[in-house]
Write a sequence for this structure.
C-alpha cells in the first residue's frame, strides 16, 4: 500500500529515493574532459584550415580571371587583322606591358618567337603569368600562328 501524500512516511520515501540516486564519479568526469580535450582541437583545426583554403581559392579564381582576361585580349588582337592588327601586331615590343590588375596581383605577358616554325608556319608562344604573394603563380600558355 502506498502512503498518502503529505504524510511523514511519504516524505521519508521521497527523500530516500532522492538520496539513492547516484551522480558521476570523479573518474567519469576526468574521462569526459580528456575525451573532449582530444576531440575538440582537430575539429577546430579543420575549420580554420577550410577557412584559409577558401581565401586561397578566391585568390586563385581572381588570378585565373586576370590571366584569361589578358589572354583574350591577345587572341582578339591576333584575330583583328582586318583592323590593322594580327600576328605581327601582337609581336610588337612592349605591346602588352606588365601591370597590376588589382592590389596584390601582378600580371606579366611574354611573347616568344625564337625559332618557332612548324611546317613552314611561324608561330609565337604567348605566356600570361599572374602572381600573388599567397599562392603559386597562375600561368596560361597558348600558341598563335602566322596563318589565317
Amino acid at each position: 500500500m502506498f502512503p498518502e501524500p503529505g504524510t511523514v512516511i511519504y516524505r521519508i520515501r521521497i527523500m530516500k529515493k532522492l538520496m539513492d540516486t547516484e551522480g558521476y564519479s570523479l573518474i567519469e568526469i576526468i574521462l569526459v574532459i580528456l575525451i573532449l580535450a582530444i576531440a575538440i582541437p582537430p575539429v577546430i583545426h579543420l575549420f580554420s584550415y577550410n577557412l584559409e583554403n577558401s581565401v586561397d581559392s578566391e585568390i586563385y579564381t581572381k588570378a585565373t580571371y586576370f590571366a584569361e582576361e589578358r589572354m583574350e585580349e591577345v587572341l582578339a588582337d591576333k584575330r583583328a587583322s582586318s583592323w590593322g592588327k594580327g600576328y605581327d601586331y601582337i609581336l610588337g615590343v612592349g605591346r602588352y606591358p606588365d601591370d597590376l590588375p588589382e592590389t596584390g596581383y601582378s600580371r606579366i605577358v611574354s611573347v616568344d618567337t625564337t625559332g618557332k616554325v612548324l611546317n613552314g608556319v611561324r608561330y609565337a608562344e604567348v605566356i600570361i603569368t599572374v602572381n600573388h604573394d599567397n599562392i603559386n603563380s597562375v600561368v596560361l600558355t597558348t600558341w598563335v600562328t602566322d596563318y589565317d
Q: What stands out?
A: The beta strands are 105-112, 117-118, 121-132, 138-145. The chain has one domain: 25-145. The first strand starts at residue 105 and ends at 112. The longest helix spans residues 26-79.
